[in-house]
Amino acid sequence: MEVVAALIWRGDKFLICQRPAGKKRALLWEFVGGKVEAGESAEQALARECREELDIAVTVGDLFCEVTHEYPDVTVHLTLFNAVTADEPTMLEHNDIRWITPSETDDYEFCPADTYILERIKALAKK
User: Which of 55, 57, 66, 112 makes an SS bond possible with 90, Cβ 3.0 to 4.6 Å?
Assistant: First the structure.
């Protein structure tokens, strides 16, 4: 499954979203994003997902990283892009949203596919 997500910074904090109850990997934290639909580019899918999930318009920037992760029920190829928005996110689908610093990531239980991404964010923050 092709999935895209956004790394959105505001100062020294980045945006994370808590998956809703009742969905696979319920209540785990993740980056905003979702599935790439047929006929969409990754960038188009990410812009659509940000509108649908947080009611924000984003400018999709460069690639941050790519990860392939095998869950018991699905294999996900996740492409994470840097993105910017001037809008204030509104919770439309998630259980919660937060702005956190890289040093706070250990306080949240993330989807397993995000482990490598979080390690990269923390490593870059130390530089």
Answer: 55
CATH of the domain at 59: 3.90.79.10
Q: Which string of b and e fits 2-21 if b means at least 16 CB within 10 Å?
A: ebbbbbbeeeeebbbbbbee
Nearest Cα neighbor of 123 from 106, 102, 104 is 102
34 in Cβ contact with 3 (< 8 Å): yes
| pTM to 2 decimal places | 0.94
Domain count, the chain: 1
127 residues of the chain, pLDDT tens digit each:
999 999 999 999 999 999 999 889 999 999 999 999 999 999 999 999 999 999 999 999 999 999 999 999 999 999 999 999 999 999 999 999 999 999 999 999 999 999 999 999 999 988 7
